[in-house]
């Protein structure tokens, strides 16, 4: 089966930084997978995600989308972003238009879709993320949970085949969190793959089929959830055995 997204041996060091953030990180995602990306702060989860749709370019290694090497031109990046959508950890990094409707339609219009098709996609994404009644609202006046759903709708309106979500469930109340997982699950049944970076181990264990574990800039494990949570060394790496005592 051709992988939807392949990250192969990625190396990356942030400018001015002594240590590389990625040291040979590899990951291969296929269609319809629910994957949790775990690992302590600084392990490289966000940096990995920024490589997956070309926001960062590796110093060595390769990103392949649906089997094709990512090309770092405007056109190549647009093609990659049609397939790989990234929902940022902080929605304020993602929302920049005056109104919710404009924000959600930015992606589809940027893809060069005609206005009618773009409008259709915006309506569909807004319905799925339950932000239809927010469409005329200014983005800056929304709550955190509303902003996240708008950011997610903006990504979904591009109809990507892979969604990378960076700690998006962290600041949410339990109801909102359940809603976001419900949206992810609906997408997965349509063949979309969702990769969620999270520190919420119980949510990861319940929701994910596969778990990827990062440590020091590498993906050190990629296995079914039960296998990862059943492995003493991996449990230590993801902090599953930390107790509350100080
Ligand atoms: N913008 C940046 N500039 C310099 N170093 C960064 C930047 N973002 C992340 N890093 C460093 O890269 C490493 C990986 O960070 P990150 O990908 O954010 O990890 P995670 O998302 O797993 O917490 C860390 O050492 C972090 O300090
Ligand atoms: Mg991060």
What features would you describe in this structure?
The protein is an alpha/beta fold. The protein has a domain at 5-93 and 160-237: Rossmann fold, CATH 3.40.50. Helices cover 37% and strands 23% of the residues. The protein has helices at 45-52, 74-83, 100-110, 115-128, 144-156, 174-189, 201-207, 225-229, 232-237; strands spanning 5-12, 22-29, 34-38, 60-65, 68-69, 84-87, 162-166, 193-197, 210-215, 218-224. The strands form two sheets. The protein has a six-stranded mixed β-sheet with strand order 6-7-8-3-9-10, sandwiched between helices. Strands 2-1-4-5 form a four-stranded antiparallel β-sheet, with helices on one face. The protein starts with a strand and ends in a 9-residue tail after the last helix. The model has no long low-confidence stretch (mean pLDDT 92). It binds adenosine-5'-diphosphate and magnesium ion. Magnesium ion binds at residues 45-46, 166.
Mean pLDDT value: 92
Might you state the CATH topology name of the domain at 5-93 and 160-237?
Rossmann fold
Q: Please indicate the percent range of residues in DSSP E strands (runs of 2 or more).
A: 15-25%
CATH superfamily of the domain at 5-93 and 160-237: P-loop containing nucleotide triphosphate hydrolases
> How many individual helices?
9
Radius of gyration: 18 Å
The level of helicity is 25-40%
- Shape estimate: globular
Note the main sheet: 6 strands, mixed
Named at the architecture level, the CATH assignment of the domain at 5-93 and 160-237 is 3-Layer(aba) Sandwich
Q: Which stretches are poorly predicted, pLDDT < 50 over at least 5 residues?
A: none
The number of E-state strands comes to: 10
Helix/sheet category: alpha/beta
């Amino acid at each position: 089966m051709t992988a939807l997204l392949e990250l192969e041996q990625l190396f990356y060091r942030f400018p001015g930084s002594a240590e590389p953030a990625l040291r040979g990180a590899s990951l291969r995602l296929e269609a319809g997978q629910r994957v949790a990306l775990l690992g302590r702060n600084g392990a490289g989860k966000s940096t990995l995600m920024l490589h997956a749709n070309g926001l960062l370019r590796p110093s060595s290694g390769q990103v392949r989308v649906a089997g094709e090497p990512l090309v770092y031109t405007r056109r190549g990046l647009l093609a990659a972003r049609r397939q790989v959508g990234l929902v940022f950890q902080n929605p304020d990094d993602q929302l920049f238009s005056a109104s919710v409707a404009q924000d959600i339609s930015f992606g589809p219009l940027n893809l060069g879709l005609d206005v009618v098709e773009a409008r259709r996609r915006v309506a569909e994404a807004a319905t799925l993320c339950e932000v239809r009644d927010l469409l005329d609202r200014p983005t800056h006046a929304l709550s955190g949970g509303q902003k996240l759903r708008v950011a997610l709708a903006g990504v979904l309106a591009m109809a990507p085949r892979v969604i990378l979500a960076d700690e998006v469930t962290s600041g949410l109340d339990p109801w909102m969190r359940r809603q976001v997982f419900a949206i992810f699950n609906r997408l997965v049944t349509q063949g979309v793959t969702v990769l969620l970076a999270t520190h919420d181990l119980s949510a990861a264990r319940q929701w994910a089929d596969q778990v990827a574990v990062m440590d020091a800039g590498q993906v050190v494990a990629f296995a079914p959830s039960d296998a990862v949570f059943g492995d003493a060394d991996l449990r230590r790496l993801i902090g599953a055995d930390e107790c509350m005592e100080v």
